[in-house]
Design brief:
The chain is an alpha+beta fold. It is built from 4 helices and 9 strands. A hairpin with a 5-residue loop joins strand 5 and strand 6.
């Protein structure tokens, strides 16, 4: 199902069969936070993980490129990408998957789509701030940790980068 208010990325518009669930790549990039992305992030970061709701939605959201993945027509995962302060570097963030869809590798799908979007925008490198408990997830995709662990609110994070 293509949401009419979102820009459609046609080369990703194909169903992927993951077991008995259809992942419809109505992967859409939109500048500005889509309501479905907002709802996923609120459920995951605020309600589930306990982050501050006022800090979750920030000044980057209006200009970042957001993607939402849908399973069987229902919003399931999201993430965003935006230019960093360093030339030719983009930042990926707010990658979130509803708990009931976490066994379908949607986080990996979101990450790949965000990397592709960053490439089309001229990125040569991607940076991100990973929750330490998700470090292995990003390492499997080629990201390398750098620097010391730091707290974002109460949660340990590590900076990670990947050459594109």
């Amino acid at each position: 199902m293509i949401r009419p208010h979102l820009a459609h990325v046609s080369f990703w518009d194909r169903p992927l069969w993951k077991g008995r669930i259809v992942l419809q790549h109505t992967n859409v990039f939109q500048q500005g936070l889509p309501q479905d992305a907002h709802d996923i992030r609120k459920a995951v970061f605020v309600d589930e993980q306990g982050f501050n709701g006022e800090m979750e939605f920030d000044g980057i959201d209006p200009t970042a490129h957001h993607v939402v993945l849908y399973l069987d027509g229902k919003p399931a995962a999201t993430g965003r990408v935006f230019p960093s302060e360093s030339p030719e570097m983009y930042t990926i963030g707010r990658v979130a998957v509803y708990p009931q869809y976490r066994k379908h590798h949607l986080g990996q799908e979101v990450l790949g789509l965000l990397e592709q979007k960053a490439k089309t925008l001229g990125a040569k490198k991607i940076g991100l701030s990973a929750q330490c408990q998700a470090r292995g997830f990003y390492e499997k995709s080629g990201y390398q940790a750098s620097g010391d662990v730091y707290l974002d609110e109460f949660c340990p994070h590590i900076h990670m980068e990947k050459e594109l």
